[in-house]
């Protein structure tokens, strides 16, 4: 058993030589322009490597490779069982490289390496296996047509799928899109966020090693406007699967309308409510879960960022949440004891701080609120809690995407529901209560893709994940995820 220590992770990270080239048609290649950009570790402010800075000419090349592979049938016409076998190999290879991948993720976007290694990546391997296993378990349909008629309803892969993903869980978000799309026979162009390209490029290596044919899986690194936009506007991309902000999600709908009406699937922002009723059985456990808002530096779309507490228990409950929140004191992401690492970059850190400054004008700061320096980096923010927030305040309305909790309060269930639903988003909602009828009532009336009772933000490959309203459309995970990457074909046979 490896002994994980700060020394171990530091030594391993110094030994790593991460890939920085794009991956097109089975080969690592520089951008056609030859341009690169510098990729920094937000926890140290030092440069990790240089990354291919792709643009629309690289997009044309990758789309052509993906299309050629699709039409040639090297993957799209393989049997689902063969695709399953190869994708299961991908899962095994991710498991083999767990330490490297955890480090790449941590160095690239600041998350605690041990948390990624012990929890997030083993989970991710199970997601890959689940999608892979499903490849040969998706049955088609035969319609109950009149005698002498056979009406078959079959799923076909859509063709060339582009996946544009964010930096908060870089490999998870890539896998949620790419593995279901690959399992159903599509070709892919993955565009990771500019801040976090390293694990997408490592995944490309593993795809090749597992036997995914050239051209089927491509990774284009670079910026949103120069890679994401040309993918969104491309006439030969059939489907665009996006996870990121609501603002950019709306752009992709426009790109589709301006080009070829490609399917656009969006997983966007959130401002999720967490309702705590006075009849909650275990307030300590509820407080510990409420403090999870600081997990992953608060950079989680489905995080319970609005804590809506019944007045009768509010003060005592906030004390408990504050105590649990202190465990998330920021630290060196390579230290195995660290629960909260660095914000993804200085720009995002400043953006979160500007929300905190506004919060100071609007409400009562009861915990944290400061940007702090560790070593050569000042990209760290203390776990922060505001009390006496109302739905009028910006810190109750806008997605902050940092370790910031806004506490609101209510007297009646009706007030609580009205507050919870007073948002443009609808990704996730939580309710803590020991009243079974109330739990069911809440799960009916809360407008969110997932309602969690006596827990927060539970995510699994077994169930759909996605949002209502401006949190997006379509669903990742579960068998429903495959609907996004297939289209239905009807065949009539008269005999
Ligand atoms: P973002 O700015 O929307 O970026 C997401 C992706 O879109 C990145 O790859 C980005 O590229 C690209 N992009 C940016 N501007 C673009 C443009 N004009 N045209 C085409 N592509 C463009 O989001 P983020 O800051 O990376 O991530 C945070 C957001 O993601 C939050 O809003 C969060 O709620 C959301 N999120 C949602 C989910 C979910 O499942 N619902 C999960 C995780 C995160 P570059 O960054 O390289 O420029
Ligand atoms: Mg980076």
TrEMBL record:
<keyword id="KW-0630">Potassium</keyword>
<keyword id="KW-0521">NADP</keyword>
<protein>
    <submittedName>
        <fullName>Aldehyde dehydrogenase</fullName>
    </submittedName>
</protein>
<dbReference type="InterPro" id="IPR015590">
    <property type="entry name" value="Aldehyde_DH_dom"/>
</dbReference>
<dbReference type="InterPro" id="IPR016162">
    <property type="entry name" value="Ald_DH_N"/>
</dbReference>
<comment type="similarity">
    <text>Belongs to the aldehyde dehydrogenase family.</text>
</comment>
<dbReference type="GO" id="GO:0046872">
    <property type="term" value="F:metal ion binding"/>
</dbReference>
<feature type="active site">
    <location>
        <position position="267"/>
    </location>
</feature>
<dbReference type="InterPro" id="IPR016163">
    <property type="entry name" value="Ald_DH_C"/>
</dbReference>
<keyword id="KW-0560">Oxidoreductase</keyword>
<dbReference type="InterPro" id="IPR016161">
    <property type="entry name" value="Ald_DH/histidinol_DH"/>
</dbReference>
<dbReference type="InterPro" id="IPR029510">
    <property type="entry name" value="Ald_DH_CS_GLU"/>
</dbReference>
<keyword id="KW-0479">Metal-binding</keyword>
<feature type="domain" description="Aldehyde dehydrogenase">
    <location>
        <begin position="30"/>
        <end position="490"/>
    </location>
</feature>
<dbReference type="GO" id="GO:0004030">
    <property type="term" value="F:aldehyde dehydrogenase [NAD(P)+] activity"/>
</dbReference>
<keyword id="KW-0558">Oxidation</keyword>
<dbReference type="Pfam" id="PF00171">
    <property type="entry name" value="Aldedh"/>
</dbReference>
């Amino acid at each position: 058993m490896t002994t994980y220590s700060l020394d171990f992770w530091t030594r391993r990270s110094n030994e790593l030589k991460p890939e920085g080239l794009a991956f097109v048609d089975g080969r690592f290649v520089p951008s056609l322009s030859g341009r690169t950009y510098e990729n920094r570790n937000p926890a140290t402010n030092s440069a990790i490597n240089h990354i291919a800075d792709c643009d629309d000419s690289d997009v044309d090349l990758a789309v052509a490779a993906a299309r050629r592979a699709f039409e040639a049938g090297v993957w799209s016409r393989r049997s689902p069982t063969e695709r399953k076998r190869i994708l299961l190999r991908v899962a095994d290879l991710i498991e083999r490289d767990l330490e490297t991948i955890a480090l790449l993720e941590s160095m690239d976007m600041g998350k605690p390496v041990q948390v990624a290694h012990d929890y997030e990546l083993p989970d991710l391997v199970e997601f890959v296996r689940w999608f892979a296993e499903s490849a040969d378990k998706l049955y088609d349909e035969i319609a109950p047509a009149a005698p002498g008629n056979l009406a078959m309803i079959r799923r076909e892969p859509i063709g060339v799928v582009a996946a544009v993903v964010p930096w908060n869980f870089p490999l998870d978000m890539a896998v949620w899109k790419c593995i279901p799309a690959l399992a159903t026979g599509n070709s892919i162009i993955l565009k990771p966020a500019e801040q976090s390209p390293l694990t997408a490029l490592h995944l490309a290596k593993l795809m090749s090693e597992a036997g995914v044919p050239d051209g089927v899986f491509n990774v284009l690194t670079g910026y949103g406007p120069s890679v994401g936009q040309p993918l969104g506007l491309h006439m030969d991309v059939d489907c665009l699967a996006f996870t990121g902000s609501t603002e950019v999600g709306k752009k992709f709908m426009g790109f589709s309308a301006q080009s070829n009406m490609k399917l656009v699937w969006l997983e966007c922002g959130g401002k999720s409510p967490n309702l705590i009723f006075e009849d909650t059985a275990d307030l300590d456990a509820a407080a510990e879960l409420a403090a999870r808002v600081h997990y992953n530096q608060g950079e989680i779309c489905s995080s319970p960022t609005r804590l809506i507490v019944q007045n009768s228990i509010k003060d005592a409950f906030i004390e408990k949440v504050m105590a649990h929140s202190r465990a998330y004191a920021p630290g060196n992401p390579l230290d195995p004891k660290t629960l909260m690492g660095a914000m993804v970059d200085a720009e995002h850190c400043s953006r979160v701080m500007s929300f905190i400054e506004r919060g100071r004008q609007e409400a009562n700061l009861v915990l944290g609120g400061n940007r702090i320096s560790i070593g050569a980096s000042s990209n760290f923010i203390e776990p922060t809690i505001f009390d006496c927030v109302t739905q009028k305040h910006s810190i109750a309305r806008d997605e902050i995407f940092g370790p910031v909790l806004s506490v609101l309060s209510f007297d009646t269930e009706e007030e609580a529901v009205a507050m919870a639903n007073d948002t443009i988003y609808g990704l996730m909602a939580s309710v803590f209560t020991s009243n079974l009828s109330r739990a069911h009532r809440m799960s009916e009336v809360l407008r969110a893709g997932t309602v969690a009772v006596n827990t927060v933000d539970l995510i699994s490959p077994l169930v759909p994940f996605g949002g209502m309203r401006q949190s997006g459309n379509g669903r990742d995970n579960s068998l429903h995820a495959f609907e996004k990457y297939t289209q239905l074909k009807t065949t009539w046979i008269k005999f």
